[in-house]
From TrEMBL:
One of its GO terms (molecular function) is oxidoreductase activity. Keywords: Oxidoreductase. Transmembrane segments: none annotated. It is an enzyme of class 1 (oxidoreductase). InterPro entries: D-isomer_2-hydroxyacid_DH, D-isomer_2_OHA_DH_cat_dom, D-isomer_DH_CS, D-isomer_DH_CS1, D-isomer_DH_NAD-bd, NAD(P)-bd_dom_sf. This is 2-hydroxyacid dehydrogenase.
Length: 332
């Protein structure tokens, strides 16, 4: 009868996930779902056998160094690991796992929603109708004209799982698929998507109608869409970002939008996390951008699937097996 591992959750997870966690582990839940302060997070690291953080928890080298001797696994509830110094964890003999695959399709769906919302003025139209108290000015042939998206060129930056899932959807919407990635995808996938690979990101940017960002946030992708590169985009182009805010030089993006040198943007993530630049709110009022509060993977089913993955990883690890979703430091 082995002692159950102490598993500390930094945030509230869906009820079925927490119920299962309590059955299997000595689970410490965050019942009021407050965001842990840094001292709370460090206290959790000192005590836990397994930590289950989310993307909001900053686990950099300095924090990880303070982990207690029992902490052997960080099983993050999320796909991205940009909040965790995986190399520092490895140095301390701490394994890191994530929850890939299960949020791919939900994230791709929401990316499509943003891709449609901005050019087709979906949010603007909905707000206008709501604000009219039910008496909108009336239809006319030139009423609420947006821009067509079918037949346009979509440039995907980062053709991993989510990028590919977006490409499949976009192809069905009649867009042609272009992509830039560290390496080419398989010939089968290129053929399926009729996708064009661009070795040069600069050249791709200059020719696309819509750009959608799907690479991980790493030191190498910080401001990958730099001020210089944003200026390569056509004034009719749209930018969609459901990946991470740090990949785009947000200030440069805002300036380009304000100056009318870019048609619009659909954003789910921001360079300064939850502190959204006020200029973006102004651009949203003007119908130039659609802003979402980091919700592209937020479905009940997805969150439960993510929780199941966390549990599978913890169980494998505790039973002495290789957890299926181990994140290796060299992935970064
Ligand atoms: C979620 C995400 O909000 O998984 C990620 O990397 O960015 C998001 O889809 C996150 O997983 C919740 O912890």
């Amino acid at each position: 009868n082995k002692k159950k591992p102490l598993v500390v959750l930094t945030r509230k997870l869906p009820d079925p996930v927490e119920t299962r966690m309590r059955e299997l582990f000595d689970a410490r839940l965050n019942l009021d779902d407050h965001r842990m302060t840094q001292p709370e997070l460090i206290a959790a690291l000192k005590e836990a056998d397994v930590l289950v953080p989310t993307i909001g928890d900053i686990l950099d080298a300095a924090v990880i160094e303070q982990a207690g001797p029992n902490l052997k696994l960080i099983a993050t509830f999320g796909n991205g690991v940009d909040n965790i110094d995986v190399a520092a964890a490895a140095k301390r003999g701490i394994t890191v796992t994530n929850t890939p695959n299960v949020l791919t399709e939900d994230s791709a769906d929401m990316t499509m929603a943003l891709m449609l919302s901005v050019p087709r003025r979906l949010v603007e139209g909905a707000q206008l109708l709501n604000a009219s108290g039910g008496k909108w000015p009336g239809w006319s042939p030139t009423w609420m004209l947006g821009r067509r998206i079918w037949g346009k060129r979509l440039g995907i930056i980062g053709m991993g799982r989510i990028g590919t899932a977006v490409a499949r959807r976009a192809k069905a919407f009649g867009l042609s698929i272009h992509y830039h990635n560290r390496k080419r995808v398989s010939p089968q996938i290129e053929e399926e998507l009729e996708a064009t690979y661009w070795d040069s990101l600069d050249q791709m940017l200059a020719r696309m109608d819509i750009i959608s960002v799907h690479c991980p946030s790493t030191p190498a992708t910080f401001h990958l869409l730099s001020a210089r590169r944003i200026q390569l985009l056509q004034p009719t182009a749209y930018v969609v970002n459901t990946a991470r805010g740090q990949i785009i030089d947000e200030n440069a993006l805002i300036e380009q939008l304000e100056q009318g040198k870019l048609a619009g943007a659909g954003l789910d993530v921001y360079e300064n996390g939850e502190a959204v630049d006020k200029r973006l709110l102004k651009l949203a009022e003007a119908g130039k951008v659609v802003l979402l509060p980091h919700m592209s993977s937020a479905t009940m089913e997805g969150r439960i699937d993510m929780g199941d993955k966390v549990i599978i990883n913890i169980r494998a690890f505790v039973d002495g097996h290789r957890p299926p979703d181990r994140v290796l430091p060299n992935r970064i």
